[in-house]
Amino acid sequence: MAMSVRYATFGSLAARSAFPRPGLRGIGITAAVAFLVLLIDAMVHPRAFFDLWLMQTVQRVEAPGLASLLRVVNDLTSSTGAVAMWVLAVVILAVARWWLPALAMLTLPVGGILNEGVGHLLVTRTRPHLAELTRGSGNHEERSFPSGHVTGAVLFYGLVFVLAGRIRDPLLRRMVRVAALGPLVLVGFARVWDGAHWPTDVLGAYALGMALLAGLVALYRRLDAAVGALPFIHAATLAHNEARPHAHALTSLVLFDGDRVIKVYAPGFVPRAIYWLAFQAPFAYATKRVALEAAMHRRNLTALLTEYWYGGSRVARVTGIETVAGQPALVSERVDGHAPRDRAAARAFLRDLQDHFEEAGLPTWQIDPRQPRAVDNVLETSDGTWRIVDLESGLVSPMASLRTWGRALRRGLLPFYDEVFFDVTRTYIEREATALATALGPVRFAELTTTLDAAERTARAWQASEPRLWSRLARGILTGFGACTWKARTHAMFAKSNGLAMDWTERAVATWEAEGRISGAEAAALRAQIAAPTFQLMVPYLGAHILVSIPLRFPLGTIARPLMVLGALGVATVRFLRREIDGGAWRLAWSIHSPLVIALSAIPGVGSFAYLAAKPVRANRLLLRTVTDAALLKAPRDLYERTGLRRRIARPVAPNAVVNI
To answer: CA triplet 74, 79, 82: central angle to 5 degrees?
Structure first.
């Protein structure tokens, strides 16, 4: 059945707007620039050079009924009138179930706050009160720029004009738009005619209002195109055969296909909005196959664990992922059963299962007895056992135990959604390994560990695909934004760089040995030299230079490497001055982080291997030639060999040597 959406408004059916949108971005930019110019003028001058003349001209206009008309306009755009009209519009839109227009309308007070902020914080201009004016302001000490009446009118009545494009009836649509244009156009004239504002106050308010309205309309239209057809809370109606057995869940469509159950996620606006606010990404189960893969492995992992806890699986296993209606869908085994006859007993089962889940680090939202729909996820089979048929959440919820909240806080996983604390799970399985292997058997236990690995791998991939800014912020706070972990990160970097440098030097020796440039005895001597403590002190710094030279190209690398050498030498000097090391250790550091190394580290390309000029390498000429040859082989376009330089540096191949290619 194709998706159908009903729009009702003022007793009429409505359709999507065909309101033209030419140059919306250009209008917004132009209005913003105009407002900026008028703002600067208002900050510098008590009034513009033409304000008095233009205001006098406007105030000379007289016509029968003009004062009464402008009084109505002022009432409709004043604080009381504007708020009343705004509340009325929100109520009408909500009753008509135009939820996205209603949400757009609810954002308008932000414009008023911005208008007040500009008037009170940036501009000191006061309202008109000169004798040359026919009418002036009675509160002339109040701030004048920009006009709040005008900004509010542009935002409110301008948005009403745009939203009226959804009305299907052409006569009603025109009437609403004309009614909206009246106050919007006349309010500026009314404020100047009454002497409440200078003309540039009004022009600035029109510019500010148009800039804000253009941005709001652009955002509204983008959201309307993406989610405007979705229900507010419940799942959207996906195309499917109505004769086929199916059920509608809060955020998904469930299709029954023989012994299989297919669940397709199509959440409404609220679940999608909550997920986006939590993780700054589209609803994962409806858009990301990797998220459903993580859900599959997580569900199957819990099924295996319930076999251990209860002697048989209490969770319907997921058998695969298919594509339905153009999006990924979760396929699970069908459980033959019925709703629990004794709901209190079912809740008792859920409480016991929740304790097991928490102990094993598994998410508990779908089985939490406090959750209104938790019992609906339980089926009672013919033999009286309980089976869980759904462990995937439709909402990001704060409902969790203090234990779960503590785990999430310590790991910087906020907010959390179907989150498995894998370190807790692994610790639990390691602790229960013997009992698990006995209860499940070796084959099923191996499946358990394999499923755990797959669940963690796919969950990490899912999380990495989303910004998750709140989690990043939480982890930053926990680590002092790196200040609390700098030692661990430094040790990890040195360990990585040490391994990188050792691998590189070993390859250099192995290459010469394979090419027959050195004998086996010489290779063994070189390896012993590399393993010597003095050489090992230098290795991490060589590796660090190679490591940072990968992401830091010229000129950043030529700046970073000398600073790293100077920093290492500075640390050694400080330690010597504090008597943490003796003079011999400091002289050794000087021989490693020497001025020659500092100079060479600044040279593009060559600088990555500057530590080859350190004394521990230069002390052994054969080792120096070996590693220098390996470094220069990295030169582009085979320049090292083409220039004949390799014949001078590299040791010749020994006569009758067997070269292993």
So the answer is: 75
Q: Residue 313: what are its φ and ψ, rounded to 5°?
A: -65, 135
Q: Which of these ranges, 13-22, 155-164, 481-490, has the smallest mean pLDDT? A: 13-22
Query: pTM above 0.70?
Result: no
Quick one: residue 268, left, alpha or beta (phi over 0 = left, psi -120 to 50 = alpha)? beta
Q: In terms of DSSP bridges, do strands 252-257 and 260-265 run parallel, antiparallel, or are they unpaired?
A: antiparallel
Maximum mean pLDDT: which of 81-95, 106-120, 440-454? 440-454
Encoding tokens for residue 160?
């009403």
* Distance of alpha carbon 153 from the chain centroid: 35
> DSSP label at 400?
-
The rounded distance, in Å, linking the Cα atoms of 599 and 649 is 21
Q: Residues with Cβ < 8 Å from 587, sequence gap 6 or more?
A: none
Strands 327-333 and 246-248: unpaired
- Cα-Cα-Cα-Cα dihedral of 5, 9, 15, 20, to 10°? -140
pLDDT recorded at residue 486 = 64
Residue with tokens 């499940």, as numbered in its chain:
440
Distance in angstroms (rounded) separating the CA atoms of residues 402 and 411: 14
How many angstroms separate the CA atoms of 509 and 107, rounded? 69
Identify the pLDDT of residue 493: 65
Q: How confident is the model at residue 4 (pLDDT cuts 50, 70, 90)?
A: very low
β-pair type (327-333, 260-265) = antiparallel
Please, are residues 623 and 530 in contact by the beta-carbon 8 Å criterion? yes
Task: Check: CB of residue 385 under 8 Å from CB of residue 262.
Answer: no
Closest CA to 160 of 102, 202, 225, 215: 102
In 3D space, the residue among 328, 341, 321, 316 whose CA is nearest the CA of residue 259 turns out to be 316
Distance CA 22, CA 94 (A): 29
pLDDT digits (tens, 9 = 90+) for 336-370: 999 999 999 999 999 999 999 999 999 998 899 88
